[in-house]
Amino acid sequence: MSVYTTVTTEQLRVWLTQHNVGTLVDLRGISAGIENTNYFVTTTAGRYVLTLFEKLTAEELPFYLNLMAYLADHGIPSARPVPDLEGSLLGKLNGKPAALISFLPGTDIDQPSIAQCSAVGTMLARVHLAGMSYPAIMENPRGVKWWQAMLPEITPFLPKNDAALVKSEVEFQARQRFSALPRGAIHADLFRDNVLFEGRRISGIIDFYFACTDTLLYDVAICVNDWCVRADGELDAGLTTGLLAAYRTTRAFISEEAQAWPVLLRAAALRFWISRLYDFHLPRPGELTHAKDPRHFQRILERHMKRPQTLAHGSA
Question: Quick one: CA torsion of 271, 275, 278, 284, rounded to 10 degrees?
Fold first, then answer.
């Protein structure tokens, strides 16, 4: 959500004539995040988010945009793409694929409570149940193949011990097989800044641009590694139990998922350690950009390796 591609008010005013959203009132860049260019857009008809996609292609984007619309149609408070006058969810602006997305009210949570983690667990299970019937398929673009491809890019920047750790963990994860686990469309990035609350109620889920078809439990692990983790990389038992218990009430775990849980917690930490290493050491030029500390997910991975967790109650 950084600004890599500049859009002027006049350029946007012309582009918005392709949509039934009134006329432009205000345009402001959004500084958070690192993948796409985002602006807050206010028109005479309401508020929206304009996204220009810096990496994803016009061929890839229908999976994400149609998933957002599909989930919204199934009762999930997903940000909904706004179709243009011809019914297309995807356009082009300043040479980049672009979409106008409905603005959702609410604020994200920095320090979640057990009740808020429970709400996230319930919502994630609802997303998974709806996503299991989403017909489109997208292989995880940040899965094992991508981790393997990134190793020669990032390891030259790392101390010897860290390079050895990331290499050995990628090799370990590449040997794992999860064919028996339930699969479907997953969010794959449901961090605290991608869930909006109004009071105790979740009012919005945003940023589906890492969504893919993968094991549902991997998505749970990604969520737990952000919502339930302490600064030292350890999982908070109360937060973890609250999230997992609420999820389980909506979608029960199977025995194979309990067996895979410790490994998928490691996989979820590894995925974000690698992506943050790449963004930190090989940043793209852009305005208002910032890269997040890779060591955070290294600590989480190391804690999971030392203290394997159980799915029953979220602790060793």
Answer: 160
pLDDT at 188: 98
DSSP 3-state of 8: coil
CA torsion through residues 264, 267, 273, 275, sign: negative
Sign for the pseudo-dihedral over CA of 71, 268, 306, 295: negative
**pLDDT in the model for residue 31:** 78
Instruction: Provide the CATH number for the domain around residue 256.
Output: 3.90.1200.10
Q: Under a CB-based contact definition with an 8 Å cutoff, are residues 129 and 250 in contact?
A: yes
Owning domain of residue 50? 9-102
Write out residues in the chain with pLDDT < 50, as ranges: 1, 287-289, 313-316
Which of 51, 46, 68 has the alpha carbon at shortest distance from 12? 51
Buried b (16+ CB within 10 A) or exposed e, 217-240: bbbbbbbbbbbbbeeebbbbeebb
What does the alpha-carbon distance between residue 27 and residue 5 come to, in Å, rounded to a whole number? 14
Query: For the chain, what is the domain count?
Result: 2
CA distance 307 to 316: 6
